[in-house]
Every structure is written in structure tokens, then in C-alpha cells.
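Intended use. Records like the one below are meant for learning the mapping from a protein sequence to its folded structure. Do not use them to infer anything beyond what is encoded.
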Amino acid sequence: AAGPVIPPVMMGSVPIVLAIAGNMRSSSVPWRAIAGPLLVAALGISLVNLSVFDFSAAKVVLPTHSILLGLLASLMAIGFWTSFGLLNESALAQRPSMSPMLWSAMLIFMCSVEMLAFVPVGLHLNLSHFASHPSGLAGTQALLVCGLIQGLGATLAGAWAWSIATRRLPLALSGQLIASGTIYATTMGLLINQRWPSPMEALGTGLLFVGVVWAIHAFYRRQTRLETHGGITDLSQN
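Structure written out for the chain above:
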């Protein structure tokens, strides 16, 4: 509805929004410690996302209401992602004995139920012609195999890793670490296309890497200070 440029760039802000929202709720990391990494990572994400699109082909004039609908949907998607991160962190904190793999499996199961529930809606809105054109299913096996790999390898394994990270790291840090997905996606895209990155892609990826590493360094420096201060306090009490 809003064209090929605006929604992906807005969705690229999810790691930054999630980190800010997580730190606003728990104040686990001082703002001065993550402000720099957040800004650098946000700039890197913007450059990488913008470099993907051919703006000469994106200058199609869209109706104002269509653009507004696309912006609204993008904002809703950011809100859903952020809400999930916050709610997932709270739910895991309330269930310290819950296995991360079991929790991930439960999440995937509910996502499957929701997907099946929305299949009739998608067919009604003509979002898929899979069921109405049974004779034109060339490539269906590849689609199903790719979907299975994504479901098990990316969704289930990703949810499992995210559940472990949520228990061990504050959302202000783990939210920023999601930005590393942009680095992986860019690298894989370059390998598949067998080319070197453009100057904008290289600069954006470099800034994103610096932002993520900077955030990790700031977090562990604070943890070291807290542990050192706690050790000194214990010695003084003894």
C-alpha cells in the first residue's frame, strides 16, 4: 500500500524501538551507555535498508490514502513486535523453571493455530490463489520445503535462542542484538548474488556492526562495575 521502500525501512527500526521500550520499563542499562550504540545502529540499519531499493522504480505516484494505510500497517507491525518482546520477557520471568524449548514449541504451536484461523480471511481477500488454481502449482514442492526449513530452522530455533537470551540479558541489550540479523541478511544476499557490497551497503553494515559491538561492550562494562562494587561492599561489611 505504501510502496517497496517505506515499510521495510520502518520495520528495520524494530531492534531500536524494542531496546528503548525495554530500557524504559526496566532501566537495566543507563541511557548514556546505550544512546551512542542505538544511534550508530539505527544509522547503519537505515543505510542498509535504503541501499536495497531502486528508487528510480519506486517513484510511482500512490494515492494519499494508500500511503497512509501502509504507514499505519507498518506502525502496527512495529507495535506488535515490541509488545511481543515485552510480554515474552515478562512471561518468562514469571516462569523461571519453564524450559526454553518447551516455551518455544508452545509459541510455534499457537502461531500455527492463528495462521490456520486466518487462512479463510486471506482467501477472502484474494491474498493467495493457491487453492483456486490447482493446475498451476509448479514450484509448490520447493515452496513447502523452504517453508519447512524456515519454520524449523528460523522460527523454532530462533524462538528457542530468543527465549534463552531473554532470560540472560536485559531487553535493552538483546533488542539491539536483533539488528545483527540485518548483517546476516546482507551477507547472505551478497553471497547469493555473487557480488561485493556497494559503498552504502558496506558503510551501513559497518556502522551496524560497530553499534552492536559497542552495545555489548557498554553492557559488560556496566556488569563488571556492578560486580566489582558488590565485591567491595561485601568486603566492607565483613
